[in-house]
Every structure is written in C-alpha cells, then in structure tokens.
Recover the amino acids of this structure.
C-alpha cells in the first residue's frame, strides 16, 4: 500500500491530522535519512516494525504534518518504493551520513531542510516545530543532550550549509558536525524541549536489538497508560 499522509501516530495510536503546515514561512523540505548500513541491528532498521508499523512510517506520520515536500535519502531505494516518495542517492557512496545530508540538500526544493533519521519511533511534531521556529538568524538548529549534539534530528539552511559541507567533505571530514564552525548554529538543550517532550523520547534512535526491545517496552507502557496526541 502506498504511504498516505494525514495519519498521525502517537506511540502507536492512529489519529487523523490536519493537512501539512510548516511553522515557518520559509519553504521546507524534509529529508529522511535511510542510508545507514544498520550493521549493529543486522537488518534494515527502517523497516523494522514497532506494533506492526515500520519505523520509517512512524517518522513519516509526523513529518508529513509539517511539509508535503519529502525526500528519502538512500542508496537502496527498492525497499521504499511502496511509500511513493522520491529518493535521493549519495553523490559519492560510502562517505557516511554527512554525504547523505549534502546530497539531500542538493536535491531539496526548500531553503530549510529538516533532517530526520528513519529510526526515531517517538518523534513528536511539537519538538520539530520548536526547532523550525528558531531558524531565523541561524543556519543550523540542532538539539543537544548529555550525549552530545543530535545532527540527525536538526534543521539546516540550504544556501549556507551546502558550501560549508562541501568544504568539509573536500578535506575528507566525515563527521556530521565537521562543518558547524563555518555556519551560525543554534544549539537547543533538552531543558528547552522538556515542556514539549518531558521524557526526552523524540531523540531516541533504534540502532540495536536492545534499543528495539526498549522501544517496545516504552510503547507497551504507553498503551497501559495511554496519552493523547497534541491538538
């Protein structure tokens, strides 16, 4: 079945949403990064199911409420054809997620790009909205926690980030944060996001079987004590 926007998943609860609407007037493209090797998981984590729903569809259910302009960044588009969304391959495969961001920005139509990893099952629209509303005057808006920066759930300004990333890649720097010294960065701490996401689950990734087991436990608890989506 093709992927259809308009369905919001909140810890497994399906509800209808309003049409896509960005909190910023600046044109927005969403980039779903699905190009990792998933070596720690041993299988394509984007298609792993949580309560019968693939992780990538959980991400899309939130992102489609912000913009209809969505690109899946992957070097293996086959598994995602059923979603009926355009895909973008790395300009130079094997260079890591920074090349994925660069390739996605090159293909993006919007001046702002919201980059989200495909394996974030508890992503909340309110958190993404907060990041987007802080875009004025900055080139990158990125959350950080005690674990460090979270570049796989961040907002990037296309015009200024592209040359900075190109420069980093030319110097064989592959870390996602390698170019940040060349652009204006707004770092958003968890304390700012806590009113929107008290448990800090929006930034959770599913990288290992243990992470998947934890996500299932969280989902089970949310069903025992169900929470309602935001209005």
């Amino acid at each position: 079945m093709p992927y259809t926007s308009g369905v919001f998943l909140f810890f497994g609860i399906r509800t209808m949403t309003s049409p896509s609407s960005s909190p910023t007037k600046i044109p927005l493209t969403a980039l779903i990064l699905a190009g990792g090797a998933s070596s720690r998981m041993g299988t394509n984590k984007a298609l792993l199911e949580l309560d019968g729903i693939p992780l990538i569809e959980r991400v899309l259910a939130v992102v489609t409420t912000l913009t209809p302009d969505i690109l899946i960044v992957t070097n293996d588009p086959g598994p995602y054809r059923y979603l009926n969304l355009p895909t973008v391959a790395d300009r130079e495969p094997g260079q890591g997620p920074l090349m994925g961001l660069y390739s996605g920005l090159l293909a993006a139509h919007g001046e702002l790009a919201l980059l989200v990893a495909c394996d974030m099952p508890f992503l909340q629209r309110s958190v993404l909205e907060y990041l987007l509303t802080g875009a004025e005057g900055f080139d990158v808006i990125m959350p950080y926690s005690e674990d460090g920066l979270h570049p796989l759930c961040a907002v990037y300004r296309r015009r200024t980030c592209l040359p900075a990333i190109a420069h980093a890649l030319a110097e064989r720097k592959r870390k996602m944060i390698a170019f940040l010294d060349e652009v204006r960065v707004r770092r958003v701490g968890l304390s700012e996001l806590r009113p929107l996401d008290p448990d800090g689950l929006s930034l959770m990734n599913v990288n290992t079987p243990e992470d998947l087991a934890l996500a299932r436990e969280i989902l089970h608890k949310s069903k025992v004590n169900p929470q309602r989506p935001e209005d």
